Predict the 3D structure of the following.
Amino acid sequence: MTAPVPGPAPGRAPDLGLLGSVALGGAAGSLGRWGVGLALPHGAGQVPWATLLVNVTGAFAMGLLVASLVDRPGAHRLVRPFLGVGVLGGWTTFSALAVETVELGAGRHVQVALLYLTLTFVAGLFAVAAGVRLGRTARPGP
């Protein structure tokens, strides 16, 4: 059985503070990702370093966020949606990873595509673990 998806009760208006915090965070994260893309362009057949960078740093930040906020109560109710859904949702991008990988394969750069996928997933897993570890170390508690 899965937990219910949080949201407004039937007949109630959505929480505008929550919606606003997610929207503002998403705008900030998306603009940051766009800036990284401008700073680290890539050509055909090259590893898309900008997408790799934002996805791995986003994984680290999510691990840190989980260890710092989710595992420990007491943070303002809008911090987690702002950072986790908004900023990190706008910062990271699975869709760009998928499109860039398909484009690399279609351009006969299969080895680069496999390297890109491997780097993204392996580095992302280590980044989450490092973020969780740092978050728990930096804020000890139950």
In short: The helical segments are 16-39, 49-70, 79-91, 94-106, 110-138. The longest helix spans residues 110-138.
